[in-house]
Design a protein that fits this description.
By secondary structure, the chain is an alpha/beta fold. It has helices spanning about 20-30, 65-70, 75-80, 165-170, 235-240, 245-255, 260, 265-270, 295-300, 310-325, 330-360, 365-380, 390-395, 400-420, 430-435; strands at about 15, 35-40, 55-60, 85, 85-90, 95-100, 120-125, 125-130, 140-145, 150, 155-160, 175-180, 185-190, 205-210, 215-220, 225-235, 280-285, 285-290, 290-295, 445-450. InterPro entries: FAD-bd, FAD/NAD-bd_sf, Kynurenine_monooxygenase.
Length: about 450
């Protein structure tokens, strides 16, 4: 015990299993506090690999994640890489485009390309977890050559994704709650190339083609391409078996994209990889005694429709660090408090992500939905501290997720009362005022590589 601080001596070993975004950021947090950190990743070091296998995806980093990066000094480095986005751009079947702004001027979203580590953090690649013991903290890893390595850690942090090997040990224990849900929709990625070296569409928008039971979105990349992601029920993917059927499908539902993606590319790329599944994971508690804790997708994998998967994982890191400060780094107090604080929030964002998929593919086509959005903006303009849109609370503040949902339900009652008092007549002056104020809303997104 350090007599000057009242905290334990900083020679403890923290083993982070999983070297992805959340695992690497966690290494920064623990290393900053002086712990000896070892990160174990089953894949090879992509910085040295000649061929990198995986998919290129877009990630959105908003206020929650940005605050976590700021805490370890990485914010500016990550923020410097980005493409500004103003709003959603809705594409109708006829080709008409309609923008729907998000939040207020100055609110931004970022996505990181990499996470950094501190000097007292050791990275161990091609180390696959074989087994571990919660009581002793003893872990056994298998290297790429088949040999085994053992390490004993004071704290094990499971950041090894939705199919976590660390979490399997939790499943063997009593009073551990776990659920895994695959949604009936899969996703497929297509690439929209640049035209004459420039973006084929306006790059400062999240482009959405909502078609009720399915949808396609497009996000800009730094190389001037767009990643187009088609979300659709698996049975609909399976109905399309030939290149001509692909073109017929796109001609019916996404006609404006055919000349931008290219007919030949559509015929080829649609069959390049099968549609991928999406899973949502909930569990509790997140800890075992004072020896192990789950974070990121290992604790709460969510479907990608609120842009909060990475942000929730990054917020795990900063919430844990704040609790560490509160309890003087006493793991026996920190871990149960982390479970108590974090479980309701992570379950809430998992549910919101499911809800937002319905909104994105169906509701944005509804005039009633658009009118309600305008009412939200009006009420927020009139009472900015009282009425805050759900998306604003989730994306641009650190309001706890479950508290944002509770407030949203209360505000929904206020909104319905407002609609009753001020029927849609097109002459409510604040609507025009708020609409003009929302024209300069800015988001930021940027393209990153993530090994999946």
């Amino acid at each position: 015990m350090d007599k000057s601080t009242g905290r334990p001596t900083k020679k403890k070993v923290v083993a982070v299993v999983g070297g992805g975004l959340v695992g690497a950021l966690n290494a920064c947090f623990f290393a900053k506090r002086g712990f000896n950190v070892e990160v174990f990743e089953s894949r090879e070091d992509i910085r040295q690999a000649k061929v990198v296998k995986g998919r290129s995806i877009n990630l959105a980093l908003s206020h929650r994640g940005r605050q976590a990066l700021k805490h370890v000094g990485l914010e500016e480095k990550i923020v410097s890489q980005g493409i500004p986005m103003h709003a959603r751009m809705i594409h109708s079947p006829s080709g008409k485009q309609s923008p729907i702004p998000y939040g207020k001027k100055g609110q931004v979203i970022f996505a990181p390309s990499e996470a950094e580590t501190y000097p007292n953090t050791k990275l161990n690649f091609e180390h696959k977890l074989h087994d571990w013991t919660a009581e002793t903290g003893l872990m056994t890893f298998v290297r790429s050559d088949g040999s085994k390595e053992q390490i004993k850690a004071d704290l094990i942090v499971g950041c090894d994704g939705a199919f976590s090997a660390i979490r399997k040990q939790f499943l063997r224990r009593s009073r551990f709650n776990y659920s895994q849900t695959y949604i009936p929709h899969g996703y497929m990625e297509l690439t929209m190339p640049p035209i004459n070296g420039q973006f084929a569409m306006k790059p400062n928008y999240l482009h959405i083609w909502p078609r009720n039971t399915f949808m396609m979105i497009a996000l800009p990349n730094l190389d001037k391409t767009f990643t187009c992601t088609l979300f659709m029920p698996f049975e609909e993917f399976e109905k399309i078996t030939t290149g001509d059927e692909v073109i017929e499908f796109f001609q019916k539902y996404f006609p404006d994209t055919i000349p931008l993606i290219g007919s030949d590319a559509l015929r080829r790329d649609y069959f390049r990889l099968p549609a991928q599944a999406m899973v949502s994971v909930k569990c509790s508690p997140y800890h075992i005694n004072d020896k192990c804790v789950l974070m990121g997708d290992a604790a709460h994998a969510v479907v990608p429709f609120y842009g909060q998967g990475m942000n929730a994982g990054f917020e795990d890191c900063i919430v844990f660090d704040e609790i560490m400060e509160q309890f003087n780094e006493d793991f026996s107090s920190v871990l149960p408090e982390y479970t108590r604080v974090r479980v309701p929030d992570d379950h809430a964002i998992a549910d919101l992500a499911m809800y937002n998929y319905i909104e994105m593919r169906a509701h944005v086509n509804s005039k009633w939905f658009l009118f309600r959005k305008h009412v939200d903006n009006i009420l927020h303009f009139i009472m900015p501290r009282t009425i805050i849109p759900l998306y604003t609370m989730v994306t641009f503040t650190r309001t706890r997720y479950h508290e944002a949902v509770e407030r949203w339900h209360w505000q929904d009652k206020v909104r319905h009362l407002s609609i009753f008092l001020f029927p849609a007549g097109g002459h409510f002056t604040p609507l025009n005022i708020s609409h003009s104020l929302l024209q300069n809303d800015i988001f930021l997104i940027f393209h990153t590589w993530l090994q999946l």
